[in-house]
Amino acid sequence: MRKAVHSIFNVKEKLFLTPHYIRVKFGMTDEQLELFSNVQIGANNKIFFADNTRRTYTTRHIDFVEKELWIDFVAHGDNGPASAWANRAQPGGSLGIGMKEGRRPLFPEVDEYILIGDSTALPVISAMLEQLPAGTSAKVVLEVHGKEDELKLSSKARFDLQWVHNTHPEQNSNLVEVVRGMDLPDKKQFVFAAAEYHTVKNLKSYFRDELGWKSENYSIVSYWKRGESEDQSSAQRREERREEHQEESQV
Ligand SMILES: Cc1cc2nc3c(=O)[nH]c(=O)nc-3n(C[C@H](O)[C@H](O)[C@H](O)COP(=O)(O)OP(=O)(O)OC[C@H]3O[C@@H](n4cnc5c(N)ncnc54)[C@H](O)[C@@H]3O)c2cc1C
C-alpha cells in the first residue's frame, strides 16, 4: 500500500489562465515540501472541503524553488463544490490536499503517444507532455470551451496538437468523432485518454473493440459524468474499471 500524505495548504495566488480555466497556486512550507517530496507531478490528488466532501484533481506542478503546489480547475460554474471553491478562491484561503506517495511514471516507454482529453484532462496531459523525453512524439487532441481557452503547451517531444471547441461539455462532445478521423501511425504507441464518462466509454470501445488494441497499449479513464456529482458517479466509474480488469484477466 502506498502511503498517503495530506496537509492544509494556503492559497498564494489565483489566476484565470483562460476564461474557463483557473490556476490556484498554493504556498508550501518547508514541512510540506518535505512531506510531498516523493509524489508524482501529474498524478491525481484529493481535495477536501469542510463538510467532508472530497473531489479528485491533478497535481499540475510542484515548484520546489518557489515553494508552490499548483492545481488547475475547470471553471464549470457554481454547481459543484470544487468549481465553486475555485471561482471564489482568494489568497489567504485554504484547502486540504492529499496524495499517494510514489513516483510511478505517468506513461510507459513507447515511440509515439496519443493523448486525448477534455478540459479536465488538460492538467494531466500538460504534465505528461512536460515529462515526455526528447526523441518521442505525440499526437494530442484537446477539447476546450473555445479558441480563447487554448493554452500554450510545451514538451521536449515532438507533438502535433489539435484543439476541439465545445461550448456545452455538460451536454455532449464530439471528441470521439475527431479521434476516429485521426491517422494512427503504425508504430509502437500508447493512448492516454481522460474525459467525460460517455466519451470515455465510446473511446474505449473504439480502441479495444473496433481496433483490437490490447489493454497494455491504452489507459482510457473517465474523469466526470454529465449531470452527476463526483460522489454520485465515482462508484459506477470504479465498478466499470473493475469489470474491465476482470474481463482482461479472463482473456
Ligand atoms: C483522476 C482525476 C483527475 C482529475 N483532474 C482534474 C483537474 O486537474 N482539473 C479539473 O478541473 N478536473 C479534474 N478532474 C475532474 C473533476 O474531478 C470533476 O470535474 C469533478 O466532478 C469536479 O467537482 P465539482 O465539485 O466541481 O462538481 P461535482 O459536484 O462533482 O458536479 C456538479 C455538476 O457539475 C458537472 N460537472 C463536473 N465537472 C464538469 C466539467 N468539467 N464541465 C462541466 N460540468 C461538469 C457534473 O456533471 C454535475 O452535474 C479529475 C478527475 C479525475 C478522476
Number of strands: 12
Domain count, please report it.
2
**Main sheet summary:** 7 strands, antiparallel
Radius of gyration: 18 Å
Number of helices: 6
The CATH H-level homologous superfamily of the largest domain: Nucleotide-binding domain of ferredoxin-NADP reductase (FNR) module
Q: End-to-end span in angstroms?
A: 27 Å
What is the fold named in CATH at topology level of the largest domain? Rossmann fold
CATH C-level label of the largest domain: Alpha Beta
Do you know the CATH architecture of the largest domain?
3-Layer(aba) Sandwich
| SSE pattern, N- to C-terminal | EEHEEEEHEEHEEHEHEH
Structural class: alpha/beta
Give an overview of the whole structure.
The protein is an alpha/beta fold. It has two domains: 4-100, Beta Barrel (Elongation Factor Tu (Ef-tu), domain 3), CATH 2.40.30.10; 112-250, 3-Layer(aba) Sandwich (Rossmann fold), CATH 3.40.50. Helices cover 26% and strands 34% of the residues. The protein contains six helices and twelve strands. The chain has helices at residues 30-35, 81-88, 122-131, 175-180, 197-210, 230-250, and strands at residues 4-18, 21-27, 44-48, 54-58, 61-63, 68-74, 94-100, 112-117, 137-144, 158-165, 189-196, 218-224. The protein has a seven-stranded antiparallel β-sheet. Strands 10-9-8-11-12 form a five-stranded parallel β-sheet, with helices on both faces. The chain is globular, with a radius of gyration of 18 Å. The relative contact order is 0.14. The model has no long low-confidence stretch (mean pLDDT 93). The structure holds flavin-adenine dinucleotide. Flavin-adenine dinucleotide (FAD) binds next to strand 4, strand 6, helix 2 and strand 12.
